[in-house]
Write a structure and sequence with these properties.
With 222 residues, the protein is an alpha/beta fold. Helix content is 35%, strand content 13%. It is built from eight helices and six strands; from the N terminus they run αααββαβαβαβαβα. Helix 6 packs parallel to helix 7. It is globular, with a radius of gyration of 21 Å. It starts with 31 loop residues before the first helix and ends in a 10-residue tail after the last helix.
Length: 222
């Protein structure tokens, strides 16, 4: 691998002392803040697009509003992600939202749909199995199904994307799609997208739980 390709996840320095946060901070030898200045210039040029600039500015404001400073100077988080999704959509003056979900989180999707509608949004929701397309249509063999010998509808993320695109939604919210299915829907969406929940069948749709337990409980899984 190119020795100048960034490996930020391996940086040993505390975030408050890193070069990416303070002048004269510490860094790895391949730090992109040092070696990728031309890439940074090109990236910053992309912010010159008015809508991109507005989106980025509101995202940064949303980040700051997710914290509050206490009287003793400590900073604490204030809002769950669900609230931030609605707040950000309001900042962007979106009216119609897409709710793209897995049928495995149907009950949760009902709650989110009701919450977003209560905030004044027009919500277009579409489940993963919509269309009732057999898995055989994409080359899945019977022995590769969850329950061989039965009819199984394929998850159809491209169809989900086409549905919300056709409805001209302005902002999309993904809930609980499988790995790979989420990639396909993101690839084919016309409007911006955010992830409210990522699928994790074992960890209650909290993938970070596996990260926190990778060297303990999860070490015995695989």
């Amino acid at each position: 691998m190119d020795e100048m390709i960034p490996t930020c996840a391996k940086c040993p320095h505390h975030w408050s002392k890193r070069l990416c946060n303070i002048e004269d901070g510490k860094s790895l030898a391949n730090c992109p803040t040092i070696h990728k200045k031309e890439v940074l210039k090109e990236a910053m040029r992309l912010y010159e697009d008015p809508e991109t600039l507005r989106f980025a500015c509101n995202a940064s404001i949303q980040e700051a509003e997710g914290y509050e400073t206490l009287e003793d100077g400590r900073v604490r988080p204030t809002n769950p992600r669900l609230f931030e999704v609605a707040d950000f959509a309001k900042k962007m003056e979106y009216q119609r939202l897409g709710l793209i979900f897995c049928e495995g989180v149907y009950e949760e999707a009902r709650v989110v749909d009701k919450y977003l509608a209560g905030k004044g949004f027009d919500v277009v929701s579409i489940a993963c199995k919509a269309g009732r397309t057999p898995k055989e249509d994409i080359g899945v063999r019977d022995d590769q199904k969850i329950t061989p010998g039965t009819f199984e509808s394929m998850c159809n993320p491209i169809y989900q994307a086409c549905i919300v695109n056709d409805a001209e939604v302005e902002f999309n919210v993904i809930m609980g799609l499988c790995v790979g299915h989420d990639s396909l829907v993101i690839q084919h969406l016309k409007a911006p997208v955010t992830i409210l929940a990522a699928k994790d069948r074992v960890m209650g749709h909290n993938p970070m739980a596996a990260v926190y337990n990778l060297d303990s409980y999860c070490a015995y899984i695989k």
